[in-house]
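[Help] Beginner question about ligand-bound structures

Sorry if this is basic. My supervisor gave me a protein sequence and a SMILES string for zinc ion and asked me to "get the holo structure". I don't really know what that means in practice or what format the answer should be in. Inputs are pasted below exactly as I got them.
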Amino acid sequence: MTDTENRLLLIEILARDLMKKHHVDYLDFKFSNDKKKLGYCTTEYISIQTNHALYDDINEIQNTILHEIAHALAGLENNHNIFWKEIAKKIGVKIESKQNQTE
Ligand SMILES: [Zn+2]
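Answer (accepted):
No worries, everyone starts somewhere. Holo just means with the ligand present. The predicted complex, written as structure tokens, is below.
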């Protein structure tokens, strides 16, 4: 495997571990090439931007994964409201972190 493949595999394992830990492993996980969003959550999957996964600090990536997990737990309709924030805080999301780029 190339370094790129290894890195993506590592991030996917991290994401799936965290998703399992927080009981949202009924969702799929994938990488996306969306240029604006570092992470995204739908009713079917959580995605992480490929470039974010490849080039950013592992703690930042973990924070993005947790941010998306909080969306899955809170319900997508809650967006970034107070209910989402409470769950995000509980599972350890650093909310300031690249908020504007993380949907
Ligand atoms: Zn968000």
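A couple of things worth pointing out: Residues 67, 71, 80, 102-103 surround zinc ion (CB under 6 Å). The helical segments are 3-21, 50-55, 58-74, 82-91. Feel free to follow up in the thread.
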